[in-house]
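Structure (tokenized):
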């Protein structure tokens, strides 16, 4: 009897060991970073997101000592939805990638989300902005981590209107992201007592903004809202200055990053309001991580790059916790686990896939007020998570029960 009991115990133990290793497919978790490595968003995301992903992998392995391998692959989607979709399909069908991540550019993100849903794999969106990702286009395999058009418009547009900038004209990138940002910002302007007197849409990406800026100038608006990002925003601001549009009219950068401020300089951007999900100089924890990132990339991180680290680490912790790379098990674990790291405190993933966390209203410092390199912002307000993102009561996501 004792011998039988012993054999049974050994058999169960061996079965448990076998299943523990077998639950992660091939013993490998493969993460694919699909980003803009060569275009106007390469500074915002690009190589920096690959570095941030590798940092998360290295930190996870050092601390958690998982019983599975982790592999990283990367590619340039060139800000084109068809290229992004084709690469994602190749990765998921042929290369056994478990999670496709980063996905700056809304058209790329929306295309990859559909492939991820079809193949039942995870999409972790950091760089793309449109609130559509967790609103009318949501699905149960996608998490939108860093920010969205609702959160940045909610912070910046509200602040500018409260400062007296009531009359707006929008200069908008003519694709899904720009349309979404213009809509969300327009709603905030009107809700706070302002008015929108017009808008014009420019090609994406753009180089010559002169005709569009002249329309904005002739509108008589106090505020020209820039519903674009990256190189388009940088060129819009430069050309507005060259044509003498500023300072007669003010610019509102509805989606600006610290790398944009760095490229333009404090003289050109001083006193502008913008909304960020992360700033390297917020506290000791953000400074410590950002210094590590700077040592590798020689630039301070954008919120996209910091969010990339955070989302990757959260994903890997979920895989370890459920001892599986099964999409539904991992997603369930990610959604039930709070996010507490240097990027977000008490963050959580809602049923629509939106990771909600505090956002920050920033104002760009004057050159004389900047004490060290990359010391660019004054934090004017912390926007609590509950206020920063679209409430679920207004959601069009099919996953939200009302």
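Design, position by position:
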């Amino acid at each position: 009897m004792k011998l039988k009991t012993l054999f049974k115990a050994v058999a169960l133990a061996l079965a448990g060991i076998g299943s523990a290793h077998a639950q992660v497919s091939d013993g490998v978790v493969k993460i694919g970073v699909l980003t803009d490595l060569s275009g106007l968003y390469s500074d915002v995301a690009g190589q920096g997101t690959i570095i941030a992903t590798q940092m998360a992998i290295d930190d996870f392995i050092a601390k958690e000592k998982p019983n599975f391998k982790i592999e990283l692959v990367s590619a340039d989607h060139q800000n084109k939805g068809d290229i992004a979709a084709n690469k994602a399909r190749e990765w998921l069908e042929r290369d056994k990638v478990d999670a496709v991540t980063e996905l700056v550019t809304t058209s790329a993100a929306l295309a990859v989300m559909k492939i991820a849903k079809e193949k039942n794999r995870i999409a972790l969106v950091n760089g793309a902005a449109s609130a559509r990702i967790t609103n009318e286009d949501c699905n149960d395999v996608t998490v939108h981590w860093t920010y969205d058009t609702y959160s940045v418009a909610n912070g910046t547009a509200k602040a500018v209107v409260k400062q007296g900038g009531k009359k707006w004209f929008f200069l908008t990138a003519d694709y899904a992201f720009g349309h979404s940002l213009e809509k969300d910002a327009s709603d905030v302007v009107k809700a706070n007592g302002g008015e929108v007197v017009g808008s014009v849409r420019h090609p994406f990406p753009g180089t010559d903004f002169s005709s569009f800026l002249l329309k904005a100038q002739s509108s008589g608006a106090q505020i020209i809202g820039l519903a674009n990002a990256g190189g388009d925003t940088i060129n819009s601001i430069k050309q507005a200055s060259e044509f003498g549009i500023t300072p007669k009219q003010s610019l509102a950068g509805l989606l600006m990053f610290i790398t944009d401020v760095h490229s333009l300089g404090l003289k050109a951007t001083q006193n502008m309001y913008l909304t960020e999900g992360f700033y390297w100089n917020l506290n000791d924890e953000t400074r410590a991580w950002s210094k590590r990132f700077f040592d590798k990339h020689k630039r301070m991180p954008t919120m996209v790059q910091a969010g990339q680290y955070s989302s990757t680490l959260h994903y890997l912790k979920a895989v370890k916790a459920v001892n599986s790379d099964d999409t539904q098990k991992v997603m369930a674990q990610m959604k039930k686990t709070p996010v507490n790291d240097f990027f977000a405190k008490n963050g959580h993933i809602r049923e629509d896939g939106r990771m909600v966390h505090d956002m920050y209203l920033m104002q760009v410092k004057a050159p004389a007020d900047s004490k060290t390199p990359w010391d660019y912002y004054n934090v004017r307000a912390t926007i609590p998570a509950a206020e920063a993102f679209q409430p679920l009561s207004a959601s069009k996501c099919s996953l939200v029960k009302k």
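Reviewer-requested clarification: Residues 150-276+360-387 form a domain with the Rossmann fold fold (CATH 3.40.50.2300). Confidence is low (pLDDT under 50) at residues 1-22.
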